Amino acid sequence: MKSLLDVVNEIDNFPYHGSKSYDQYVGRLWEFHLANDSRAHGYIPDFVVQAMPWNSDFRIDDSSDPRRVTLLKSSLTDANQAIADLLLSARGDKIFKCLNGWRNEEYRILGAKLDLKIERAGAGLFGITTTGVHMTVYTRSPDGEILLWVPKRSMTTKKNPGKLDSSVAGGVPAGVEPFECLVKEAAEEASLSPELTRLRAKATGCVMEYHVEDAGEGLLEPSVKFVYDMEIDRETVLQPADAEVEEFRLMTATEVQENIVAGNYKPMCVMVLIDFLIRHGILTIENEKDYSELVARTHRFLPFPLRPE
Amino acid sequence: MKSLLDVVNEIDNFPYHGSKSYDQYVGRLWEFHLANDSRAHGYIPDFVVQAMPWNSDFRIDDSSDPRRVTLLKSSLTDANQAIADLLLSARGDKIFKCLNGWRNEEYRILGAKLDLKIERAGAGLFGITTTGVHMTVYTRSPDGEILLWVPKRSMTTKKNPGKLDSSVAGGVPAGVEPFECLVKEAAEEASLSPELTRLRAKATGCVMEYHVEDAGEGLLEPSVKFVYDMEIDRETVLQPADAEVEEFRLMTATEVQENIVAGNYKPMCVMVLIDFLIRHGILTIENEKDYSELVARTHRFLPFPLRPE
């Protein structure tokens, strides 16, 4: 049977500095840079750089080490327009499958000096750090045992059909505060009233991971997920409010853990659940051999700026 | 005024890979190795390698890159004896100030294949990862506000006199389970009964940091601190049980934060308190600009094994 760390290794699969594959792996990537900013904001795999219909708004420099792609526009309006134009052009040419999932919603480029935005479906093409919110809603059995509210995704939803998920989760669009995003998602996904979420949801930190799609060969997806807990009474019942979720069920922590190692969870929420199990004293140094490593891996120091200098 | 991140930068001051000083800094260090184990277990600064009275139990190899010190003894008894003999000899010669604080208590070398031990006062000379337990004991005001029990160390104690500290804290000696160590320390330091600690203390994760003494020029001290919370009623009062603590006071989270940035806390417990303030929703992404970085920095991925292969 897999361990939790085995599952984490599949999700947080960008190599760590000091591992055997690190130098070779990173050496094959391109850095994504913004005008007037010495810091990289993402890594782009070579197949994306080769396929993208770059125009003169970008400089493609394969003589630098590491190789880099630089957005040359330095004003807010021009830079945002350049990104949008490029992605629309790539979408029109049907070059990247990910752009089929166009959202008309944008992520902010975390750490950029300007308020720069990228269409969500295209964020992975630039390898920027994305932002999400995840909330675990739980109650307690009469003898005090924690029971988690777990949604099962609909079999007809496009991404991760039939998989288990965080009680509430979503990407944070540019210009929206994470907590406000959470309040909205809780109502839309789990029929939780804004009043209840505002009263009971508690910020408990964030989970950071560095995922690479297609077992390390695909798009690079570093992420920060702001994490919230909400304990509710046993009378409050979570209900699907849109077609994405089929049903909500109450599960013990043991059932959650079994479903994680069985691969029944959507990968994107696994780190959030492991963090929950650790913070609530369900996993301990005495019962989980990889305890300290799981704590470090769920809170990865990402190599890109999280806020402007 | 300092930010929390400024304080964290002083404590977690081993450079990160990718920072300007990393390669040069690490290039000046020696790796500490054990027999039949390809993984390094610590970094040793050059001044220690030059001053230590090495004997034939150790190989000093300055032609390898990085340079390394290897303990050659491969049996459990011989290896432990070799470490003990070396440190006793260095202590006799009064070479290192840290050995004046000889404890007659040992740390386990985390991640070693054998059950190897190093006298606590000498752990920093090999740069191994040390293990501790920290508990924050808190109660709530009538309106629900968190109040933390904060000890002030005695002015006559040798280390960090007069500084504020974790409610309960201590190093975990080799052969002792972290939770059992916590139960003992809670009784010895804060007069908390073993029954109460066993009932109410809750494991919530661990804090990992990489400190280098003397602002980066001294001994290397990576550490794992297992973290516990204990909420108690307002009638239970913490009392000093030994001469190390002068008094316990109840403080609001704001007072704790002010004392951290004012430098009134013992540096070793600052990360534990920041982790507490984040887990309890007192610091949030909306009120703390360095939120995500503080989460990553308090849970550092250390470059040494935390458990045997």
From TrEMBL, chains A, B:
InterPro entries: DUF4743, NUDIX_hydrolase-like_dom_sf, NUDIX_hydrolase_dom
Nudix hydrolase domain mapped to chain residues: 128-273
Pfam families reported for this sequence: DUF4743, NUDIX
Protein name: Nudix
Gene Ontology molecular functions: 8-oxo-dGDP phosphatase activity
